[in-house]
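Anyone up for a design puzzle?
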């Protein structure tokens, strides 16, 4: 018989009220309490706390405190990761983040979901679906990424988006619900914002 933790990670319906998952959430909260209250200069100490908490990471990442997650061990960071203030990751299912990913402030990655009908929801049943963010993605501030979503490589998600379904690679997508508005092209190398040219392109 599977434990609640095994069901959770497998994407099956489970109840999170058991002792094992409660204690693991409490452990993550204790580690993050220390992380979020260390002096700003304690960068190496903060990163060591997260490296022990996460499922995997390199040495090259920076997450601005405060940061919060459910468990930590379901978070897998690629190289050269940066997240601004108030990143929240509900990592009941795996959250896999590629290389060179940038995340703006107040972004939330939610793998957790709950039944639509109130009776099973009130009884404490829930489920979790993995989130994948591929290489070179930039996610603008105040974005929410919902369970089961994959964001393709090199894509930009505009600020304030609610991402409810997969977004392909090499596009700009924005909105609630988030939709593709255009492809990213070679011309974007010349301009960083509308008609504002990159310095090397202005010569």
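Challenge accepted. My sequence:
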């Amino acid at each position: 018989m599977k434990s609640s933790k095994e069901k959770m990670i497998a994407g099956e319906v489970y109840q999170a009220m058991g002792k094992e998952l409660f204690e693991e959430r409490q452990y993550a909260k204790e580690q993050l309490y220390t992380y979020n209250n260390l002096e700003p200069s304690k960068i190496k100490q903060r990163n060591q706390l997260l490296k022990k908490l996460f499922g995997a990471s390199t040495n090259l990442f920076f997450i601005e405190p405060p940061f919060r997650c459910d468990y930590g061990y379901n978070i897998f960071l690629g190289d050269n990761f940066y997240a601004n203030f108030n990143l929240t990751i509900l990592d009941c299912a795996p959250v896999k983040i590629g290389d060179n990913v940038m995340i703006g402030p107040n972004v939330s990655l939610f793998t957790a979901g709950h039944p639509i009908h109130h009776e099973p929801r009130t009884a404490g049943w829930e489920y979790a679906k993995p989130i994948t963010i591929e290489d070179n993605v930039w996610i603008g501030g105040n974005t929410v990424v919902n369970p089961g979503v994959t964001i393709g490589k090199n894509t930009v998600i505009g600020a304030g988006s609610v991402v409810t379904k997969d977004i392909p690679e090499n596009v700009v997508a924005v909105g609630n619900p988030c939709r593709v508005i255009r492809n990213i092209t070679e011309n974007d190398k010349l301009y960083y914002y509308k008609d504002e040219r990159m310095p090397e392109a202005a010569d």
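A detail worth pointing out: The first strand starts at residue 14 and ends at 15.
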